[in-house]
Automatic annotation (TrEMBL):
Organism per entry: Nitratidesulfovibrio liaohensis
Domain DUF1722: start-end pairs: 225-341
Domain of life of the native organism: Bacteria
InterPro entries in the cross-refs: 2-thiour_desulf, DUF1722, UCP037004
Protein name: DUF523 and DUF1722 domain-containing protein
Region (Disordered): 1-22
Length: 350
């Protein structure tokens, strides 16, 4: 990352939230996104949506690989060069190689982050240390006629195929944790998917750390069925089979395999068509109690959502109304209807 983070406070408190800090998400983040002046030019990349809106529900753990591994502020800019699958991290002008120092730091830092009990991480887009994907990797060339000490030259345009050195180590160490870049959070669907997965990871953490029992897993799966269905029917079915045969599995292996399948499934996009199918599935729980007019209203709202005429929050709000009106216990326990705080307005986009 061309920004870096001094070893900073372990968290940044949000504006207002229930006092029980166990309810708050704990998210690692590139330090410059919090407004810390750690970038190569002495500046920052403060993201007000992250600190202002998401900060109401999250405690942040800042990380800046450059500063924490010994680079000053300000400093010479960095870039990735060589093979995109195994690039080197060098300064742009002096060509000082920081690859091994950065990797050694990253391996140490991710082990320290185990104790932070993170629910996910927000990386800085395009950073050579912290970019998640599509980081520029420059060709590496050292022609014989370049005088000693004059630096290297680069041939051709860079390939946008790299991953920041710290980000790669982090994602290898925590493959199931939700990760995202701040730039991609501008996309409403990517933003909702990421934040939804953060809340699922937080709900998983407490029973898992206490030792997930088979009964606990059945309860967790039951309450997340429709949420999972909105992302992947295949994962919904395969995890259902896994839970149905829970008694034949070692509890630790069962929990690991379940979480792996769950997070793989939730990473898949929840499309309009998938949501519409789940909404119609939910209607089945009211087939004996809804009046003809209520059934017609629900079907019309789902159809309008399917045609992108109204956002998802409209049919979800109507369903929640019927859940309360008719006391439907199964749907009342489904996180699909309330996966994250309504104040975030994550389902308000068409």
């Amino acid at each position: 990352m061309e920004e870096s983070s001094r070893p900073a406070p372990t968290g940044v408190a949000g504006a207002s939230h229930p006092a029980d800090t166990d309810d708050r998400l704990r998210v690692g983040i590139s330090s410059c996104l919090l407004g810390n002046k750690v970038r190569f030019d002495g500046g920052h990349k403060h993201d007000p949506y992250i600190t202002g809106t998401l900060g109401q529900y999250m405690d942040f753990v800042p990380v800046c690989p450059e500063v924490e591994c010994g680079m000053p502020v300000p400093r010479e800019a960095l870039r990735l060069v060589g093979d995109p699958a195994n690039p080197r991290l060098v300064t742009v002008k002096g060509y000082e190689d920081w690859t091994e120092r950065m990797r050694a730091f990253a391996l140490r830092r991710v082990e320290q982050l185990v104790d932070e009990r993170l629910d996910g991480f927000i990386f800085k887009r395009a950073s050579p240390s912290s970019g998640m994907e599509r980081v520029k990797v420059y060709a590496d060339h050292d022609p014989p006629d370049v005088p000693e000490g004059a630096g290297r030259v680069n041939l051709g345009p860079p390939q946008e195929k790299g991953v920041g050195l710290f980000a790669r180590v982090f994602m290898d160490r925590f493959p199931l944790l939700p990760t995202e870049e701040e730039g991609r959070l501008n996309d409403p669907r990517l933003r909702e998917n990421f934040i939804e997965r953060l809340f699922v990871m937080r709900r998983w953490r407490a029973p898992a750390e206490a030792g997930m029992t088979r009964g606990g897993l059945v309860d967790f799966h039951t309450r997340h069925k429709l949420l999972l269905m909105s992302h992947s029917v295949e994962h919904y079915r395969s995890l259902g089979r896994l839970v149905a045969h829970a008694a034949s599995h070692d509890p630790a292996d069962l929990a690991r395999d379940y979480l792996t399948g769950l997070m793989e499934g939730l990473r898949l996009p929840a499309t309009t068509a998938k949501h519409a199918n789940v909404l119609q599935h939910c209607m089945g729980y009211f087939k004996r109690v809804l009046t003809p007019d209520e059934k017609m209203e629900m079907l019309e709202v789902i159809q309008r959502y399917r045609k992108l005429q109204v956002p998802l929050v409209v049919p979800i709000t109507l369903l929640n109304h019927y859940v309360r009106k008719y006391g439907e216990p199964y749907l009342a326990g489904q996180f699909y209807l309330n996966p994250h705080p309504v104040e975030l307005k994550l389902r308000n986009h068409a």
